[in-house]
Give the backbone structure.
Amino acid sequence: MTNYDIAAIRDLVARRRPRHALESAFYTSPEIFAADMDAIFNRHWLYVAVECEVPEPGDALAVDIGKSSVIIVRGDDAQVRAFHNVCRHRGARLLPPGPALVGNLVCPYHAWTYGLDGALKFAEHMGDGFDRACLGLRPVALRSMAGLLFVCLSDDPPDDIDDVVRQMEPYLAPHDLKNTRVAHTADLIEYGNWKLVLENNRECYHCMPNHPELTIPLFAYGFGFAPEELSAEDLAQAERYETLRRTSHDRWEAAGLPSRLIEHLDDRPTGFRTERLPLDGSGESQTMDTMAACRVPLGTLRDKAAGGLHFWTQPNAWHHFMGDHVVTFSVIPLDEGRTLVRTKWLVHKDAVEGRDYDLENLTSVWNATNRQDADLVEMTQRGVADPAYVPGPYSPHTEGLVEKFMEWYLARLKAHLG
Ligand code: FES
Ligand SMILES: [Fe+2]
């Protein structure tokens, strides 16, 4: 049962002009939002949490995704598992969103009690012939990618996740996510459709005019520019960056730090992109002075100027891995015009706030940047909902990766609609 008009959405997909923004309905229609949840968020691998958030047996985390909610829990055998947060009795939510410490998973309604492996252990007054074995919690597919936790709500998750894990683990492993902890989480509701949030993330066309903090560590021309339009000074900046990117890759790769670009944003179900990129100034971290924010280095990273490894996945995440801290971002659609962007800053688990890092210094670049991006998304949502809106063209120089996101999205939507 679907509550949207498949033929009408198919027509909209078919008449999309390549390399152009989408028609208004894609950003404003509750029906297309419902189709997006079915085709994209209920079927693909979603980044939701970090393994260090459930470090010990009994540590649990409930994450809401649309109408679904998933419990991630570490069992007594130290395995991390995921279950639907729905009681097998009459359906009550077992845990509220957020972290919890549990012995068992006890339903607040009639106290049905599940083990950390999901098995139903106790259910009173159910009489003879009641078969507990059939009423364990329903599992959710879960994969840890060097400590990043991905879930898939489908019973038939895309199996290319194994290949993504194989390619990504060497890039992520040096940062040793399993020995980190979350220093800070920020939940920001952006008043725009989830696709506007992703489109905005997949280009830095808007960085120069909007992100004075972010463009201290990041090179504004790192994701493309029209060479004929740059001033001599800007062109020199862009060339300096290209040289730095080349020489940094050579140096990092020689030191055993995988750095070169891998890009599969539009040619597979689990689209992704990674590359270690040099940072400006000292090259250490995404901070206001480009220096490491945390004194305790991560993992095996001893080159302080290890730049920033970025890792993007379709449809809902991007991350920046640095020598001293990691910032992860997940995108959870709330409705057609609202999207939750959850940001987590991770530091080494032994790092102490106030001694090894200052929280304000650690978070200031991305707190400012997220706020600016939220404003950009909101103003775009208002504009695309205006009857006068006509989709405009993407820049061939700076919005190629926005187009790849759109190609991926439309292909997945089309495959789902048949
Ligand atoms: S709904 Fe969970 S025990 Fe009744
Ligand atoms: Fe931005």
